[in-house]
Predict the structure of Adenosine deaminase domain-containing protein.
Amino acid sequence: RSLLNLVRSLPKAELHLHIEGTLEPELMIEIAKRNGLLDSLSFHDANAARQAYLFKNLQGFLNIYYQGCNVLQHEQDFFDLTSAYLERAAVEGVIWAEIMFDPQAHTQRGVAFEAVVKGISRALTAASNSLGIHGCLIMNFMRDLGADAAQKMLDEALPFKHLITAVGLDSAEIGWPPSQFKAVYARAAHEGFKLVAHAGEEGPPDNIWAAVKDLRVSRIDHGIRCLEDEKLIHHLRDTQIPLTVCPISNEKLKVYEGQLSQKLRQLLTCNLVITLNADDPAYFGGYENVMAHPLQQSYC
Ligand code: ADE
Ligand code: ZN
């Protein structure tokens, strides 16, 4: 208990968090009601929602996650979502949060890119002033929408470049190798964005190689499956490319067999740079498991 209290009291950095994955059922229902969308949800109260949060794999989770995203329509919705997360994170000692968002999950429903990015970044500015929690934004390309759609989203993002620090890659992994996104990553780098990508979550170690070699990322999100490739482990150790590991997410999405603690120990004994993160805490639990983490490993 005293160790838990100590960890709680330490300042922490959150480096892998999808803001849409912090949408708690209570807020989802409140926003759905005010947008007249309650009937679009497959559950009508928070308890029923939580009971539906049992996942077989990444895709099973994504289906529910994108359904939740659908209630978000206006800048105020993104502001409220982000403010609720930051308040909660500040209480838990997070002082730096790198917030990922999935613009395409919203723009493909007709929501303006501007409403999404302004709502999130306005909440971050407000929290910096009132709560002392600071951070930056990472805009993710959705892999399963393909490279052309990613290029289009990058075009849409350019007028808001000053609000966005990095680009990332997320959504379904199997069948969507990172190499397809080489050109859009090169352009994002040229525009001054930092580069990260989800890789080696459900997909094979080759995806981590491709993220490093083809996309030239400076950080891998998840990356847990590097443990299957000894050469890759050596490369990640030698280059000290960090992995933002999300153990509770991995467990809930059943991305590997065997024991979680054993995987973490393996990563540490290989001398890899790893950080512990929440991913989608409204769906997986685990806000409080964002562990202490030295700030110099922070990204922005
Ligand atoms: N989007 C939100 N959470 C994700 C995850 N764990 N993997 C890939 N895409 C995601
Ligand atoms: Zn993630």
Remarks:
- Residues 16, 18, 170, 198, 221, 279 surround zinc ion (ligand 2) (CB under 6 Å).
- The two ends are 33 Å apart (CA to CA).
